[in-house]
User: Fold this.
Amino acid sequence: MFFKQFFKFGLVGVANTLISYFTYAILTYLGLFYLFSNVIAFAISMVNAFYWNNKHVFKENIENRKVVNSAFRMVVSYAFSGLIVSSALLYIFVDVFGISAYIAPFLGLCITVPLNFILNKFWVFR
Assistant:
């Protein structure tokens, strides 16, 4: 069950990453500061992720789960892993290491995806 969920979470994550990245890239290209673009892309992708993770990935015990509680936990989880950690990594990669602002978001995924899965599995949709 764990690996099946991780696989589904990964599929949702790929779609979510594409939505987030294209939003980020378009806003950055249009001249918005890359960290602000990241916040907006994060918000859009979080709504998308909640829907798909709630309905299709962590669907067991969905009738016993309070959607409002799960939504609140997801906001906290994503704010930590998806916004704070990813923004910190983005800053480090771009401003400290000089990596392109268009490539840096993908590097952070190596840390934020596993962290986010663990938070979602054991806290958000428990």
